[in-house]
Design brief:
The structure is a homodimer. By secondary structure, chain A is α+β, with helices and mostly antiparallel strands. Chain A has helices spanning 11-15, 25-33, 115-124, 126-152, 155-170, 186-193, 197-210, 225-233; strands spanning 2-3, 36-40, 45-47, 55-61, 64-69, 75-81, 86-87, 101-104, 108-114, 171-173, 178-180, 213-216, 219-222. In chain A, strands 1-2-9-4-7 form a 5-stranded antiparallel beta sheet. A 4-stranded antiparallel beta sheet of chain A has the order 3-8-5-6. The A-B interface holds A 68, 70-72, 74-76, 78, 90-91, 93-94, 99-100, 122-123, 126, 129-130, 132-134, 136-141, 143-153, 191, 194-195, 233, 235-236 and B 68, 70-72, 74-76, 78, 90-91, 93-94, 99-100, 122-123, 126, 129-130, 132-134, 136-141, 143-153, 191, 194-195, 233, 235-236. The structure holds a DNA duplex.
Chain lengths: 237, 237
DNA sequence: CGCTTCTTTGAATTTCGTCAAAAGGCGTGG
DNA sequence: CCACGCCTTTTGACGAAATTCAAAGAAGCG
């Protein structure tokens, strides 16, 4: 399942996180000592929707899928979390229960802090609070854009937007184009684009045939970003 | 258009806002003195998507419609803002430009603070920062729920959910049932439910005929919440 | 009272989800 | 090492919900 305790956490690892931007090295060292770090295997559930023992989390290496399910069982991917990003933190401030599920996409190195620890840190380093506002403010804007897309755009455009967002968030350049860090099944793409597995499969396959992207071992590489971009901006007719 | 300056702002008006929860009366008095209050006519544009002179706003009386438009012109209603709620605040912390348009739904009394003022207030009263996190954290969760609904539910259920959310947010009890504070056109309901004017009209009209709700002078009153709730939870088939 | 804006309603079109089934991949265990 | 089973992906056919197109009423405003 996971190993913990013995994993050393360098202050510069924390410095790379937006959550701790603008803090002095001495502060980072203190925080590092108070951080729980775990190495998690693939497909491990970190928390479940409704859980009441909330902690603030961040990914150091690997990736996490955040999904939300309704009472009817239908689910969507809220977000994929890549290296350096925090997750599960909002619930500390709202109702103290996670609003979604978190599952590792691959082997992942995860940092976390208890509610009391994070609140104490914010108290002692108010900059962290401002960072939290900036991070969740940006996410709020992103989700609002998704709402607009879901309400007004067709499936193909939404998939294109989803891919571009993922590339921006967790893409790195390779010889073949921009590769997305973590492995994604067709179903993942469907759930983040707000469509079905079948529609997502049809669209991605057609793009592969056109040479716009390639999938190898669940990892997507965008070979012709300009084409994906064109589709994402295409007029409705 | 609007009148300003001469409008007195009572500290208890601020105390009723979640943004200023937990502050001492002396602090509220100081804040009141630094608040710009304006009385705005109906259909007035408070700010536009992309504007760079950002302020933090709140509604005292009346209502505001927050809409977002894409480059293709399609628009959605992000949210309706009722009495006591803040709006336009997130952009202070992110990129310093409003991500949406704000238009008054009716004659409205609006409070606002400049960027420098709000940041200074947060600095002096860190509780305000925590309140901001809680408010936008809750909104983030709400928008994420809307994403799930848009991705998985049919139009009728989405309209039902939208109405229930509005009733919870800005409803008050009357002899006929729960009335929503501000006037809503069919198009508003459509744009918040993620459907078209036509579909929204058909659905609302059918509910009126069934006696579940009534519209008078653009204001919706839910007469049988249990029926709307039933529809919002109805199985897909 | 005329004009603009909003609402209702009908009919045609279309996208997309649903149903169905086969093929491909990967790991496990015999 | 091969075979079996499970998960994922692909692909086709069909149907239905909703958008689009079109147009007439209704209501509010100057």
């Amino acid at each position: 399942m996971y190993s913990t305790m013995d994993i050393a956490l360098a202050p510069q690892t924390l410095a790379a996180m937006e959550l701790f931007q603008g803090l002095a090295v001495s502060a980072l060292e203190t925080i590092a000592a108070r951080t729980r770090v775990r190495r998690l295997s693939k497909d491990l559930r970190i928390f479940s929707q409704g859980d009441e023992e909330v902690r603030a989390h961040a990914v150091i290496e690997g990736g996490v899928r955040i999904t939300q399910s309704g009472s009817d069982g239908a689910q969507v991917v809220i977000r994929f979390i890549g290296p350096g990003e925090m997750f599960g933190t909002v619930s500390l401030f709202t109702d103290g229960r996670y609003p979604a599920d978190a599952i590792t996409l691959a082997e992942t190195l995860e940092a976390s802090w208890s509610e009391a620890e994070l609140l104490d840190l914010i108290h002692r380093h108010p900059q962290i609070g401002v960072n939290v506002i900036r991070i969740i403010g940006r996410r709020l804007q992103e989700v609002q854009e998704r709402v607009r897309e879901l309400a007004t755009q067709r499936a193909e455009r939404r998939v294109a937007h989803a891919l571009l967002r993922l590339a921006r968030q967790a893409g790195h350049s390779t010889i073949d184009g921009t590769a997305i860090e973590f492995p994604l099944r067709r179903k993942d793409v469907a759930d983040i684009s707000g469509t079905t597995l079948h529609t997502a499969s049809r669209i991605l396959t057609s793009w592969e045939k056109a040479g716009f992207l390639m999938t190898r071992d669940r990892r997507l590489t965008i070979r012709q970003p300009s084409e994906i971009l064109r589709i994402s901006e295409e007029a409705p007719d």
